[in-house]
Amino acid sequence: MPCQSSDELKALVIEAKKYTKDGKVADYIPALGKANPKDLSIAIHYPDGPCISAGDIERKITLQSISKVISLALVLMDRGSDYVFDYVGMEPTGDPFNSIAKLETMIPAKPLNPMINAGALVVTHMIKGKSIEERFQRLVSFIRELTNDPTVNYCEEVARSEFETAHLNRALCYFLKQHKIIDEDVEQLLDLYTKQCAIEMNCLDLAKIGVVFAMDGVDPVSRRQIMPPDIARICKTFMVTCGMYNASGEFAIKIGIPAKSGVSGGIMGAVPGRFGIGIFGPALDEKGNSIAGIKLLELLSAKHSLSMF
Ligand code: GLN
Q1: Which of 54, 81, 99, 301 sits CB 3.0–4.6 Å from 13 for a disulfide?
Q2: Would you kindly state where each structural domain of the chain is located, as residue ranges?
Q3: Which class is domain 4-63+202-303?
């Protein structure tokens, strides 16, 4: 179904766009540095089919950390929650997403949650399959099911750019391997993880994934249960407690919806029982969240009382 351009969303985008000048595009992954900091777009997908939008919603963005919540859902289906949470915790950190500090001070050295890089690397390690290729294809197939878009794939340039510069993530992997939280070849795991982060789609697809989480794992278009309600619930809870990194508390107070952001400037939101949101605004604040995207959600949440609290 085509997405209708919305005057209301356009007005909110114009208002929120003013904040892009206070943000900065991520460039620690060199290929992401090419994004235009002034971009801002949004799509909202309702359960009964219609979609409304503002801005350039055709533009493809890489998922980056948004992929963490999707790989978590897949791994929970693959292995069950008891197994998964033996290797990764359930608590927010208060530290930046790529921090190694807590790994060293916590005993055992298990990452605090699956939304920080250390935890996400453990989750990616748990994706089942006989080879990197098979594991990656299983994740992509799952995402194609969630978006209902068989063309979803990954951006080779972004994956390569991150793979070549992921020194900190390599350090996290070696730490995890030393402490027997993971046991695979670090380069192989990074190959899979950087491809996962480079999976790309537009805001509409992002909103479509959001609506599946919002509707407890049911695809409202095909009416299929894509993931068990309990897994959708676990993922949404992590989105609330850890989805916006170490800004999740403030986000919960000011906006109050489950959401997951990525350093590409994407945000996927799931308003329980109501709709899914996909946002792209690559100018980031100092914590790595889309600065204008958060403003846009703040305006939207205030206007339509979206907070679940
Ligand atoms: N691929 C990125 C990384 O590991 C994802 C981080 C993010 O979006 N916060 O650094």
Answers
A1: 54
A2: 4-63+202-303, 66-197
A3: alpha beta
From the list 186, 190, 185, the residue with the least C-alpha distance to 165 is 190
Determine if residue 263 is labeled as part of a ligand binding site: yes
What local confidence, expressed as pLDDT, does residue 57 receive? 87
Q: How many alpha carbons lie under 13 Å from residue 246 in its C-beta half-sphere?
A: 12
68, 102, 208, 260: the catalytic one is 68
Among this protein's residues, is 87 annotated catalytic? no
Query: What global pTM score does this model have?
Result: 0.97
> Which residues of the chain, if any, have pLDDT below 70?
1
Upper half-sphere CA count for residue 28 (Cβ side, 13 Å) = 9
Distance of alpha carbon 284 from alpha carbon 263, whole angstroms = 7
Q: How many CA atoms lie within 13 A of 76 on its CB side?
A: 21
pLDDT of residue 238: 98
- According to the model, what pLDDT value does residue 226 have? 97
263 catalytically annotated: yes
User: In terms of Cα–Cα distance, which of 74, 71, 16, 90 is closest to 283?
Assistant: 16
Annotated binding residue 298: no
Alpha-carbon span 117 to 101, nearest angstrom: 12
Atom in ligand 1 nearest the alpha carbon of residue 120: 4
∠ CA 245-250-253 to the nearest 5 degrees? 130
Q: What is the distance between the alpha carbons of residues 5 and 50, in angstroms, rounded to a whole number? A: 11
Residue 58 CA to ligand 1 center (angstroms) comes to: 23
CATH class of 66-197: mainly alpha
Please enumerate in sequence order all residues whose Cβ is within 8 A of that of 43, keeping only pairs 6 or more positions apart, or say none: 3, 51, 52, 53, 57, 202, 203, 204, 206, 207, 277, 278
What's the confidence (pLDDT) of residue 1? 58
